[in-house]
Amino acid sequence: MEVKLGFGAVPKPQYVFVSKEPDHCWYMLSDDTRQIPIYERALTGVITGIEVNKKVETSHGEAEKTDLHILADKPYVIRSGSESYFSKSLLLSLDALTSEQLHHPLTIAVSPGERTIVFCAIYNPVTYRSIGVSWNGHREIDWQALGQKVSLKINCIQNLHQDEIQISANTTASEIHAVLIAQSDTYLAQLNWTPEQGRDYLQQRYGKRSRLQLTDVEILDFIDYLKLQLTQNCST
Fold first, then answer.
1. Contact 131, 97 (CB under 8 A)
2. How many Cα atoms sit within 13 Å of 45 on the Cβ side?
3. Integer Cα distance of 226 and 155 in angstroms
4. SS3 127
């Protein structure tokens, strides 16, 4: 995404809200809270995160919302009521997606139903095929548990792409090792490994009890192993 220099709008995510109207199903808010209709039915971008059952203060009091974060021409946040059909169909579609599919751009589309109902449909923008979901038994679904499952999968995938190791030509050997140790700290925390688990693996794999004793090659191998464990956790 190109950065435009000079004066311009404040660089913050654009919130998009879901509501069934006669000629549109979602809208944005102007600075004076005036609704700006969005007549296009679809938004294509890369999903970068999701917040489920998020408590938000509204004009009608506190409410639980689902916020889907998408990076397109700029960052967007699609906000919908946690109990809405849009949020529920969104969760069903996201649950059906594989970790590999979530690495690529997807199209989020609104689909109007009866009365005030709006459904969510997700498409592959390359093949034009929608992600098939089933509503059979939806009344028995534990939506809170499904939301947690989807949130873990999406946010876990995004965490794997953050904090990439960047080393310049002037970085010393000790600084490189410190960066690698810090990177492994991040993955160990995400895996909820105890110090005992870490020491046991290091002893079994490298015959050493501390990461400080590992060579750079060994710590890189250890990081690759931790990333593999996170990827497997995200896909289950």
1. yes
2. 17
3. 16
4. coil
Calpha distance 29→1 (Å, rounded): 23
The answer to whether residues 78 and 18 touch, using CB atoms and an 8 Å cutoff, is yes
Q: How far apart are CA 134 and CA 89, in angstroms?
A: 9
What amino acid is encoded at 26 in this protein? W
Q: In the prediction, which pLDDT does 169 show?
A: 47
Residue with tokens 């809270």: 33
**Contacts of residue 15, Cβ cutoff 8 Å, sequence gap at least 6:** 28, 29, 76, 77, 79
* Ranges of the chain with pLDDT below 50: 164-165, 167-169
Contacts of 133 (CB under 8 A, 6+ apart): 89, 92, 93, 96
DSSP string, 2-45: PPPPSS-----PEEEEE---SS-SEEEE-TT--EEEE--SEEEE
What pLDDT is recorded for position 156?
Answer: 66
pTM listed for this prediction: 0.69
Name the β-bridge partners of 107.
44, 123
What distance, in Å, lies between the first and last C-alpha atoms of the chain? 32
DSSP character at residue 84: S
**Token representation of residue 130:** 């929608």
Tokens 């093949």 sit at which residue? Answer: 127
Indicate the DSSP class of residue 159: H
Give me Rg for the CA atoms of the chain: 22
**Orientation angle between helical segments 143-160 and 216-235, nearest 10 degrees:** 150
